[in-house]
Amino acid sequence: MKNTIVIAADIAKDIFEYVKFKNDRQIGKIRCCKRNQFAKLLTGPETFTLVMETCSGAQHWARLARKYGHKVILIPPKVVSPYRQGQKTDANDAMAIYEASRRHQLKASVQKTVEQQGLSALESVRSHYQDRKKSLGNAMRGHLAEFGIVMPKGYKSLRRQMPLILEDAENGLPMSARQAINEYWEDWQLANNKVLRLEKEKLKELNKIAPAKELLKVEGLGPVTTSGLLCVLGDGSAFKRAKEAAAFIGTSPKQHSSGGKEVIIGISKTTGHKKLRAALIQGARSVILRLAAKGEPSSEKERWLAQLIERQGENRAAVALANKNVRIAWALLAHNRQYIAA
């Protein structure tokens, strides 16, 4: 029988607890170590399978373990919690991580490269300042509405009219409110500049990654959705087929079947990657708008989309195209293919 060694580790900032198994038999007690000691364990001569819960720092330790020849499995926290016995302690978590890793139908988390981690950080910061822009814009509009000044929707009208409103001394806006809103306006401009700068930086990084260049060729995929797909899908190896990738993101319809009767319902708004799914559907809507302006479809994909719009309407067609784009993205990443528009 081949000896298989598995180490299940509950990682934290400074203190790590792990348990070692050999051929499904526990070796010794659960051990506690510090950060540098855990690093020595990974860089030692003995190779093993390292199982961890997906949390802060897990991707770093996964990359270090793979560098020294270890196999790594990352497990989502929601999969681990049902196997925890007793109260929540680091020791019980380590045992639960091992028990969860033994499941045959385990859905492991995607392991990210340094480049994907960098893209994820860029997108997270960009999203933060984008949300800040929205919040500040809504706050300025709300305060101005209290003084009878109402602006049209959109950032374009905000950029054009806000300087004029703040400079107009005859619009009934008191000096105290004018100064306060001006603070918001300065913050909004700062956030807007940061969003633009981060978008340029992200596009520059995407152009350095070969799979990203192929994803950007797909109709309806831009820098935001491409970086999101790269971070969520990785190299595609975490999913056996395109259908699993689409269901993971949340672009596939939910199923509630029983007794051999299949019941397919709409996509969920609460599960999956909500922001990425929303961006994918928004990108699909832009394709539909261009197709309507274009008139006659010129490719097989456009003809499929036009027929779907006629049968089901634009909303369902947008979701279907988003779902199709996720599946295309998985195929490009998992099989290292080039995108050829059909």
Describe the structure.
- The protein is globular.
- The chain has helices spanning 35-42, 58-67, 77-80, 90-101, 114-145, 155-167, 175-206, 210-215, 223-233, 242-249, 274-294, 300-312, 314-335; strands at residues 5-10, 15-22, 25-34, 49-53, 71-75.
- The protein has three domains: 5-101, Nucleotidyltransferase, domain 5 (2-Layer Sandwich), CATH 3.30.420.40; 114-206; 214-256 and 270-335, no CATH class.
- By secondary structure, it is α/β, with parallel strands linked by helices.
- α10 packs across α13.
- β2 and β3 (25-34) form a beta hairpin.
Main β sheet profile = 5 strands, mixed
Tell me the fraction of residues in β-strands, as a range.
5-15%
Q: In which range does the helix fraction lie?
A: 55-70%
Following the backbone from N to C, one meets helices and strands in this order, namely EEEHEHEHHHHHHHHHHH
How many E strands?
5
Number of domains: 3
Radius of gyration: 25 Å
Distance between the termini: 51 Å
Summarize this entry quickly.
The protein is 56% helix and 10% strand.
Defining traits:
342 residues; Nucleotidyltransferase, domain 5; 3 domains; 13 helices; 10% strand
Topology:
Blueprint: E1 5-10, E2 15-22, E3 25-34, H1 35-42, E4 49-53, H2 58-67, E5 71-75, H3 77-80, H4 90-101, H5 114-145, H6 155-167, H7 175-206, H8 210-215, H9 223-233, H10 242-249, H11 274-294, H12 300-312, H13 314-335
Helix pairs in contact: 5-7, 5-9, 7-9, 9-11, 10-13, 11-13, 12-13
